Amino acid sequence: MKEELIEILFEYREAFASDNEPLGAIKGHEVEIMLNLERTQPPLLRRPAYPASPRAEEALESHINELVKLGALRNVGHNEEVDVTMPVIITWHNEKSRMVGYFRALNTYNIPDRFPIPRIH
Description:
single chain; extended; DNA/RNA_pol_sf
């Protein structure tokens, strides 16, 4: 059983994060995610940051820098307009930080999609 699991994991290793591909990817099955919003700039989707302790701010800066380096996020200019800004909080577990986005307000404006997740066979 263990050998079978290792075989399967090895066969699909590109789907998992590694030192070379920190985000993981399933090549050949890229999916573009589109948000269908009722209004282009709903007011509730532009919210200020939550107050944070110096420890949480330092952890947040570290997470953001890593995601920018990986190309998952980009820096936004000070006067640049963006459609969605959501508060992000830092949670701690066993002295390790984790970045958590609060996107509940987005559900109010998102038009439901009948087939939100494609099936990959």
